[in-house]
Amino acid sequence: MVKTLREISIPALLLASFLCVTVKTQSPAQSESQAAGLRAAFSTAIERDFEIVKDEFNTRSDASSGGRYWLVHVKPRHSGNFQFKYRYRYHDWFKDPLYSHVEREFPMPVGERGCRRAPQGVGHYAKFCVGDTIILPIAIDGFTEHEFSLTSSAWTKQDDETFEAGYPETRDQGLFLADVRNLVADNLKYVGSGSHKVLYRNGGYSLEIYAVFEALRPGKFNLALGAPFAGVLLQQDASTGIPLIIVGRETPLTLLASREKVLGYRMAFDGREYVSSTSGNGYLTNVLILQPGDRISLKYHTITRSRANEFGGREAVDVLALPPVIRKLPFAVDPQWRYNEWIVKYLPAGN
Question: What global pTM score does this model have?
Fold first, then answer.
């Protein structure tokens, strides 16, 4: 079922349209009035499937790409395949229209309580679970006439089977196994190392070397990875710690909806709207939250080979000679890194 502002009363529609006030000139009363209009429209669209836990405004600094967002914390009432969408116009679109309107879409699959979230790299999860709180970032700076909608279908046993088939427990094919000193062995098993070649159009390539880990027991620390010194061409990487938390299977989390699809629409001469641009945003954090049994691949070294190296008879890179150096550091999160500030207050406690 899709719900939009067209189904909402005229007062709510009028309130939701006053989004052109700039951040710096808004008084607390104006902010609350804006929030009330947004909240009424948003709630009408999602109340059947989600409850609103809280909402807040956030203004990002120019150094952090700028912009003003309305952050809505929602909790799913049940499992399902959800697609959240909102649309808006630019405040000055009638003067110099870039688009007739813009739509942003968030996929939000939700499994049952205690489900596998299957992290896909740092900061992105393939699925949420019942009991989790999801932070939805709504862009509002310079935009107006926001409309919200939510479509859904039931989460079925077949969905679980399809999901699990995409994230098998056994993924050791092609990995190099080496005797590595693992200083996080109590919490994280080192499974092995692998490599992935990224080809250049003009010849040559980059060889990305990664380590595969499996979460074992709950814990909280920063994981530092690097390559050992291996001669003049293969210098050791400067490792930075990844904030890592391992929680029990039933632990509810507050997670950021990290990927959205952005569609820009234009008006044709015949009055019809058409998609003129498609892009995406990644609201990424560098905090990695795992459950026992989860596996994750983390890059720890990159080797660049030029076209001359590739065809000049040089020996191939021996990944076996570059096992990861694994270090355990005290847990720490940089709130200035990308979108960490949106989640840092809601991270789970742990040892």
Answer: 0.83
Q: For the beta carbon of residue 98, count every other beta carbon within 10 angstroms.
A: 13
Residue 261 vs residues 84, 116, 134, 147, 166: alpha-carbon distances, Å: 11, 24, 17, 16, 22
Task: Annotate 261-296 with b (16+ C-beta within 10 A) or e (fewer).
Answer: eebebeeeeeeeeeeeeeeeeebbbbbbbbbeebbb
- 313 in any annotated domain: yes
Does 349 reside within a domain?
no
- 239 plus 257 within the same structural domain: no
Strands (E), the chain: 50-59, 68-76, 80-90, 101-111, 128-129, 133-139, 143-153, 188-199, 205-215, 219-226, 242-246, 254-256, 259-267, 273-282, 288-290, 295-305, 325-329
Whether 272 and 195 share a structural domain = no
Tell me: do 215 and 241 sit in the same domain: yes
Structural domain total, the chain = 2
DSSP character at residue 189: E
Domain containing 224: what range? Answer: 171-248+290-329
In a domain, 52, yes or no: yes
Same domain, residue pair 207 and 223? yes
Taking CA atoms, 136 is separated from 29, 78, 129, 148, 316, in Å, by 23, 17, 15, 12, 46
Of 285, 289, 215, residue with least CA distance to 252: 289
181 within some domain: yes
pLDDT digits (tens, 9 = 90+) for 315-346: 455 666 788 999 999 999 999 999 999 999 99
| β-pairing verdict for 50-59 and 68-76 | antiparallel
More confident position, 77 or 175: 77
**Given this model, what pLDDT does residue 16 score?**
35
Residue range 187-211: average pLDDT?
Answer: 89
What CATH number is attached to the domain comprising 215? Answer: 2.60.40
Q: Same domain for 216 and 101? A: no
pLDDT per residue as tens digits for the range 211-235? 999 999 999 999 999 888 644 333 3
Q: Are residues 28 and 146 in the same domain?
A: yes
